[in-house]
Amino acid sequence: MMKSAIVGCGGIAVVHAQSLIQRQIGEIVGFADIKPERAQAYAQRFGGRAYSSLEEMLSAEKPDVLHICTPHYLHVPMAVYALGQGVHVFMEKPPVISTQQYRQLAEAVQQAEKRIGFCFQNRYNKSVQLIKGLLASGEAGKVLGARGFVTWCRNEKYYTESGWRGSLTTEGGSALANQSVHTLDLLNYFLGKPVWTDARMANHHLQGVIETEDTVEAYIRYENVNASFYATTAYCADVPPLIEIACENRTIRMEGERVTYFYPDARVELPEVEVTAPLGKSYWGSGHAGCIEDFYESIKTQKRYEQDLEGIEDTLKLMLAVYESARTDSRIYTDSIAAAL
Ligand SMILES: NC(=O)c1ccc[n+]([C@@H]2O[C@H](COP(=O)([O-])OP(=O)(O)OC[C@H]3O[C@@H](n4cnc5c(N)ncnc54)[C@H](O)[C@@H]3O)[C@@H](O)[C@H]2O)c1
Fold this sequence. Notes:
Elements: E1 2-7, H1 13-22, E2 26-32, H2 36-46, E3 49-51, H3 54-61, E4 65-68, H4 75-84, E5 88-91, H5 99-111, E6 116-118, H6 126-137, E7 143-151, H7 156-160, H8 175-191, E8 194-202, E9 215-222, E10 226-232, E11 242-247, E12 251-255, E13 258-262, E14 268-269, H9 288-301, H10 309-328, E15 332-333
Parallel strand pairs: 1-2, 1-4, 2-3, 4-5, 5-6, 7-10
Antiparallel strand pairs: 7-11, 8-9, 8-15, 9-10, 11-12, 12-13, 13-14
Helix pairs in contact: 1-9, 4-5, 8-10
Bound molecules: nicotinamide-adenine-dinucleotide.
Nicotinamide-adenine-dinucleotide (NAD) binds at residues 7-13, 32-35, 38, 54, 69-72, 74, 92-93, 119, 121, 162, 178, 284.
């Protein structure tokens, strides 16, 4: 079994640890956190040794794979460091929070002999696979357009308790980079290559509390269709994210993992979709274990991992383009993001 290590022992790390153990994907040899008591608690619960720094853990344990579960701003520097140490990296979202980080990451990945995989676990949901297959089959007809809609609740307490969320330097973005980047990724997964975006953002309900946005809306031009995207954390509840794809022969709606087909003759169909119980919060979905397992399998079999940098690059570029568009009040072409790469 490959040796796994996890850096960042907060909320999401538990899902990584449980996935590794339940599916016997990797043997956990170490946990690292700048709050040593967190690393110790994880080591006691899941096995392995506790460390107070990434560097110390990698040097002592020499793991095969590092899972990065730290705040956003640390993803790239930690990935660059681990790849440089000859360790495979499995990274939580978002992959980057700036164009500069994107350049650093791309350079490190190009030079590395080891692999990197990104955690967009919702692509593994049965509902997503069902829709992907339906679109590919042509049965739904031509895609006319789509919308993505994320309305969640993130209040003052959520941000003030965190220490890193809500700051441009450490979180980079909230409604999009943190909460709704999965939905943006799924839109791309279904619709193909995004070409340009025209976006706006705002802080409606947390002025003076966060520097980042609580609301973002974007018009996205894909090669063949347009999509509207809206995300806000100023809502009163965590409603399942919605993606709706209007096709010639039916409209496909996905809310959370529930799929509904609406036909032109007013018929409504609810296809059966198997939903696995999530290991963590319900809105994190149940895809982590499959996503992690596939990454390890790709290392063993030397096959390409679909969620490598190339596989998620459109999402990364579109996310940066949405922010750039909102900051500059102008249309931004996704290929202009780090164009010199
Ligand atoms: N894929 C998903 O659905 C999903 C869900 C939740 C969180 N996430 C992502 O996971 C990451 C972590 O989120 P979280 O909710 O677990 O955050 P968290 O704040 O609960 O945990 C982060 C941990 O990192 C530790 N840390 C900070 N700086 C460190 C350093 N220099 N070295 C070692 N440890 C350090 C903190 O002490 C903390 O224990 C974020 O990037 C978030 O976007 C992804």
